[in-house]
């Protein structure tokens, strides 16, 4: 349950940081779940509900309430995450990555707006360049990033295979990035996450 999703979120956040600052790639692959989390928090606040109390406002639950089967929803998520990961591997321009992330976020928000009105539920660069931040920002930004990824994966864990499949796709993309950027020491951790996520899909 939650312990597994907390661990997946923590590992993905850590890999994004230690793999030469691949935060942009993680954001691209996790774009839909991250936008969904942000939307859900705002939607709950807007309707006077606690942001920490579970309901069916998440995108995957709204799609399910619209009559789409669990298997199709999971496959849609996997497809979008895989396409975003492929873009992250192919596109080297920061601007194009930003445009892709913005397009993904826009599509997700439009879909959430449509579904919420239709039926109300109760509910960085692929190169080795590095952004150097002031030392005082390291700890709060690392905590924010890690906590955000943990919460995102935990809330994504509403349908069977959704969190594990997305985690596996992200782990595969990060593994390829690390090999291409000459960071073989981090590849075993990403492959371990990939293997664990794939193994978990059986259950």
Please characterize this protein's 3D structure.
With 203 residues, the chain is an all-alpha fold. 73% of the residues lie in helices and 0% in strands. It has 9 helices and no strands. The chain has helices spanning 2-18, 23-29, 31-46, 59-65, 70-90, 94-118, 135-156, 162-180, 187-201. The longest helix is centred in the middle third of the chain and has 25 residues, at 94-118. It is globular, with a radius of gyration of 17 Å. Residues 120-131 have low confidence and may be disordered.
Provide a short characterization of the protein structure:
The chain has 203 residues and is an all-alpha fold. Helix content is 73%, strand content 0%.
């Amino acid at each position: 349950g939650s312990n597994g999703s907390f661990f997946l979120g923590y590992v993905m956040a850590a890999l994004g940081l230690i793999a030469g600052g691949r935060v942009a790639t993680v954001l691209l692959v996790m774009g839909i779940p991250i936008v969904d989390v942000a939307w859900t928090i705002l939607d709950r606040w807007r309707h006077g509900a606690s942001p920490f109390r579970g309901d069916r406002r998440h995108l995957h639950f709204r799609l399910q309430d619209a009559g789409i089967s669990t298997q199709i929803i999971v496959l849609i998520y996997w497809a979008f995450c895989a396409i975003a990961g492929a873009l992250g591997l192919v596109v080297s321009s920061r601007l194009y990555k930003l445009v892709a992330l913005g397009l993904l976020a826009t599509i997700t928000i439009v879909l959430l707006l449509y579904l919420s009105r239709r039926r109300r539920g109760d509910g960085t660069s692929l190169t080795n360049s590095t952004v150097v931040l002031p030392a005082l920002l390291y700890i709060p930004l690392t905590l924010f990033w890690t906590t955000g990824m943990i919460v995102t994966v935990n809330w994504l864990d509403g349908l069977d295979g959704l969190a594990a499949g997305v985690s596996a796709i992200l782990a595969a993309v990060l593994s390829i990035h690390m090999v291409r950027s000459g960071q073989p020491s981090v590849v075993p951790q990403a492959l371990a996450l990939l293997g664990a996520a794939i193994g978990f899909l059986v259950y």
